[in-house]
Structure formats: structure tokens, C-alpha cells
Design a protein that fits this description.
Number of strands: 2
Number of domains: 1
Number of helices: 1
Order of helices and strands: EEH
Radius of gyration: 37 Å
Strand order of the largest sheet: 1-2
Length: 108
Amino acid sequence: MEALLTVTWWLGSFTKICFLVASSPVGQSDSFSAQIIEDLEERLSNVRASEVQSHRRELRRCKLKYEILARNELNAKLSEINAFLERRAKEQAEQDKSGGERGKIVSL
């Protein structure tokens, strides 16, 4: 007579793996147990590999978002600097122009 057993593993703090396992008659228990253990180890390694891939994808996504935010912030600061430099250049040009006119008046 076969009985069903539930085997549960926790991977990390959020991933729970449950397997329903049928136990075998007494004479076949060693080979059956070995087969179950191999199957569970394979499933466990597959789940772990998929979690690692998922984690890497999430890290790449976060890194890309951070790079985009940093570039946007840098572009905003550079735009402010350019606007400031343009204002200063206009002011300097006006001062040079008005200063040149004063020089002409004084020299006459």
C-alpha cells in the first residue's frame, strides 16, 4: 500500500517548495528513497537556478533604471550650468559694449 508524504523546503525567506511523494512498499524502500532524493535534488537545483536568473535580471533592470536616473540628473545640472554661462556671456557682452562706448566718449 502506498502512502503520500509531503516534503517541504524553504529557499531563502520567501520561496517554499512542496513535493508530494508516494512511499513504496517496504522491500523497495532503499532504491525508491534514492530515486526520490535524486528527483528532489534535481527539482531543488532547477528552482535555485531559476531564482538566480531572476535575481540577475532584476539587478540588471535596477542598474539600468539607476543609470537612466543618474543621466537625467546630470543632464538637468548641465542644462542649468549652460543657462548660467549663457546669461553671464550676454551680460559680459553688454558690459563690453557699454564699456567701449564710454571709452569713445571719454577719448573725444
